[in-house]
Design goal:
With 718 residues, the protein is α+β, with helices and mostly antiparallel strands. Among the domains are: 171 residues, no CATH class; 214 residues, Phosphatase 2c, domain 1, CATH 3.60.40. 53% of the residues lie in helices and 18% in strands.
Length: 718
């Protein structure tokens, strides 16, 4: 409060001081104006020859016009105070001495190095040359103190004098009142301001601070009184509102704390219900995936039986799922092969058809597209090749009709389902290849150890989309030993690395050419080398076509083409063998199934059943032979890869067993049984570090597994 009071007093005093100065200045000018009026009146009277001078005039002097401040001969024209020449001389002498001293002091600074007498002479000369101003206030001492104003009439200079005391008296009266006002105001401030500050500021602030202190000590039942709705009142109101909010929040928090356990149980129950609902939906979705994959599987069939054109493919869909302990995958990639006979019954040529496609979309959308493509293509192949049919068409006509039919089917979906694809027909004898490519990745020719694209520009849009290009069938001549590699865009969509949370994706399509060369055209090696470059982030399918390869595997000559896998099964032998096994006659079942296998070793149902029975009956060499045949055409069954690995291990083929187990690990990295198996294989092969690594992975998943403990002891003993 002292600082506020001091500031107020100083401010008011300064303001009143400024007002006083202005008042005194105005009073001075007012007096000067009155004196000038009377001087002008005297001037008029002198001109008129009158002597009726104003009452305030104390004297009137005259002298000839000329320069100089002192030493003039004055004539006294009028005097009320008994002014005479002696008083004038004495006063002028006194005033001259005073003025001379002051002027000499000033000249010392201007004329350095001059003596006192020289300075005095210079000063006197300046005084003699100086003209006193007319109409301005001047001062004179002649017995009393006077102020005077000068004017000139002709060659005579007149001096009209007024009493200095009267002038000071007026100023004094005004100054006295001003002093009283300043003093009174100061006293008022010193008395009234503390009271005012205490009432309007100190008490409200103290109340507010008291409330803050209580809140700091935990008392939230505080209400600061508000005397006036000023700034302090607004602060108090805001403080009260804040305290009310805190109190309300604390009460709510306490209520929540009191019922926390109940709420946690309630929320936990809600979360569990939601999780159960999500799990139900997940199971339902996986069921849809599983049914879709079952529908698609027989459609993606390597039905080629040509001894001169060898075909094989692999499909790795991106979406993996598990339904009722069965693993599967789902996606939009599709591969299909078959055989046609085109020409006339007397003169026809055999052709091998191969198709690789990639439907737009992920998971179910892509799977739907590939499913439609599989149904349409299998339907076309069934019509074209059923019952050893010979089509009286050229390869160009067949490919054109095939494109038109597939395109019209996908066009009916109005752009919601499209597919890229390459469809080829290869003359089994001449190697002439007819094909069209609907915006599918370029086909690769592998010849003499070098890989190259056989296309270099886009010439047809995806099936189901309008194309600005005119459809035409392309031709290419294959030489004996040539390979054609068809693959989906998963071959190029590789995640190379992640830098600063940004994924770096491969954009160089020529990388695939290098992969084909390093893999020597082998599709398994191609897949392995692709994965060594980066992570595959899309569906991947690779179809290999070999024309008259020197070391091509022998393929049993068949003239018929099958639409689905179950049409090529030797039904009677298959059913008889299956029934014998169910009745416990496993060896008879194997004998019957071997007869069927000798007739057709490409029947997948037959191969699967024979492979499983021979494995369970511990006929491991036969199991290895049959399971290898099955997996060469359908490499996506992790369970059969595991059985093959066990069988290879039982007959001592540890390296082959390890390769098969690694395939299982790629498809089911969390399979504890396979991880233990991998660890044991690496231990037997002397790969101690790898064995320890697989053991640790298995232990993280199932730390109570007895086989893991046994294996750890064996590793410690080695």
């Amino acid at each position: 409060m002292g600082k506020i009071l001091s500031s107020a007093v100083v401010t008011v005093v300064l303001a009143l001081g400024a007002i006083s100065y202005i008042t005194l200045f105005s009073t001075d000018k007012s007096i000067e104006k009155e004196d000038l009026v009377e001087m002008n009146s005297v001037k008029t009277e002198i001109r008129n020859g009158d002597t009726n001078f104003p009452p305030n005039v104390r004297y009137i002097l005259s002298r000839p016009v000329g320069p100089g401040i002192f030493d003039h001969k004055y004539e006294i024209l009028f005097s009320k105070d008994g002014l005479n020449q002696n008083l004038l001389k004495e006063g002028e002498k006194y005033y001259k001495n005073q003025q001379l001293k002051e002027a000499v002091e000033k000249n010392k600074k201007l004329h350095k190095g001059k003596s006192e007498s020289e300075l005095e002479a210079i000063t006197l000369k300046e005084m003699k040359d100086t003209n006193l101003p007319l109409g301005s206030r001047l001062y004179r001492v002649a017995g009393d103190f006077y102020i005077h104003y000068d004017f000139v009439i002709g060659q005579t200079r007149y001096e009209v004098g007024f009493a200095y005391v009267e002038f000071r008296q007026v100023i004094h009266n005004v100054a006295r009142w001003l002093i009283l006002i300043i003093f009174g105001t100061t006293i008022f401030i010193l008395i009234a301001f503390p009271i005012l500050l205490r009432v309007s500021l100190i008490h409200p602030l103290n109340n507010l601070l008291s409330g803050v202190e209580k809140v700091n000590h935990g008392d939230l039942n505080v209400n600061v009184p508000i005397k006036a709705m000023d700034e302090i009142g607004f602060l108090s109101l805001s403080f009260n509102s804040m305290v009310d909010s805190i109190r309300s929040a604390r009460e709510q928090l306490q209520e929540h704390a009191d019922h926390l356990e109940e709420k946690v149980e309630e929320r936990t129950k809600e979360v569990q219900e939601k999780m159960e609902e999500v799990q139900r939906l997940k199971i339902q979705q996986d069921g849809d995936y599983f049914l879709t994959s079952l529908l698609a599987k027989p459609l993606f069939y390597n039905a080629n039986k040509s001894p001169k054109v060898n075909t094989s493919f692999l499909i790795r869909q991106k979406k993996y799922f598990e339904f009722r302990n069965k693993q599967g995958e789902l996606g939009g990639d599709i591969c299909l092969t078959g055989n046609l006979r085109l020409g006339t019954p007397d003169n026809y040529r055999k052709f091998t058809m191969a198709m690789n496609g990639d439907a737009m979309g992920k998971s179910m959308q892509g799977a739907g597209g590939s499913l439609v493509m599989g149904v349409v293509m299998n339907s076309i192949m069934a019509r074209s090749a059923a019952n050893k049919r010979i089509l009286e068409k050229t390869p160009e006509e067949w490919l054109t009709e095939t494109y038109t039919e597939i395109h019209s089917v996908f066009k009916s979906f109005d752009g919601t389902m499209v597919i890229s694809a390459t469809v080829t027909l290869i003359d089994d004898e001449s190697g002439e290849m007819f094909y069209w490519n609907a915006e599918h990745p370029f086909s690769v020719l592998y010849r003499d150890g070098k890989a190259s694209f056989i296309e270099n520009t886009l010439e047809l849009r995806k099936l189901g989309l309008d194309s600005e290009f005119e459809f035409k069938v392309k031709k290419f001549q294959l030489h004996p030993g040539d390979l054609i590699i068809l693959a989906s865009d998963g071959r190029d969509d590789l995640l190379l690395s992640v830098h600063n949370n940004k994924r770096i994706i491969n954009e160089d399509e020529n990388v695939f050419l290098d992969v084909v060369e390093r893999s020597y055209g082998d599709i398994k090696s191609i897949e392995k080398n692709i994965r060594s470059i980066g992570e595959v982030i899309d569906d991947l399918s690779i179809l290999r076509i070999g024309f008259q390869e020197v070391n091509a595997p022998a393929i049993e000559q068949r003239e018929d083409n099958n639409e689905f896998a179950d049409k090529v099964v030797l039904q009677s032998l298959y059913k008889e063998g299956k029934e014998l096994y169910r009745n416990g006659e496993a060896q008879k079942a194997i004998s019957i199934l071997l007869d069927a296998y000798a007739t057709d070793n490409n029947n997948q149902k037959l191969n699967k059943l024979l492979g499983l029975i021979s494995f369970k009956e511990k006929d491991y060499p036969l199991a290895v032979k049959v399971l290898s045949k099955y997996l060469s055409q359908d490499p996506d069954t992790a369970e059969l890869w595991y059985y093959l690995s066990i069988a290879e291990k039982r007959i001592g083929n540890l390296a082959q067993s390890l390769e098969a187990a690694m395939m299982v690990n790629q498809m089911q990295p969390m399979n504890v049984q396979n991880l233990v198996h991998l660890s044991d294989l690496n231990r037997l092969l002397g790969n101690r570090e790898e064995a320890i690594g697989f053991t640790k992975s298995a232990e993280e998943i199932d730390p109570e597994n007895k086989n893991i403990r046994k294996l750890k002891k064996l590793l410690e003993m080695d």
